[in-house]
Write a structure and sequence with these properties.
The chain is an all-alpha fold and about 80 residues long. The protein has 3 helices and no strands.
């Protein structure tokens, strides 16, 4: 596979290799892509968890389990002051 890099990305990768962080530009590219893949997976997992928490809140509201927003905000202020 042939990949064209922008000059700034190539310079960045060469610096990382020169610093000894990677043995080759190929290794640096693979490591960087792995980081991007892991970050995307984490973001998708966080989004799924957030959607689940939102649905839990909606379900609670539908059941009538509601809290007074002003009381909740006062409790938060006291907790973090």
């Amino acid at each position: 596979m042939d990949i064209s890099l922008t000059p700034s990305i190539e310079r960045f990768l060469r610096i990382k290799v020169a610093e000894g962080l990677y043995d080759s530009i190929n290794e640096a590219i693979n490591a960087t892509l792995n980081i991007a893949i892991n970050k995307e997976c984490i973001s998708q997992n966080e989004l799924a968890m957030l959607k689940k928490e939102i649905q839990t809140g909606i379900d609670d509201a539908d059941k009538g389990n509601l809290s007074d927003a002003f009381v909740f905000l006062d409790e938060l202020r006291k907790k973090y002051e």
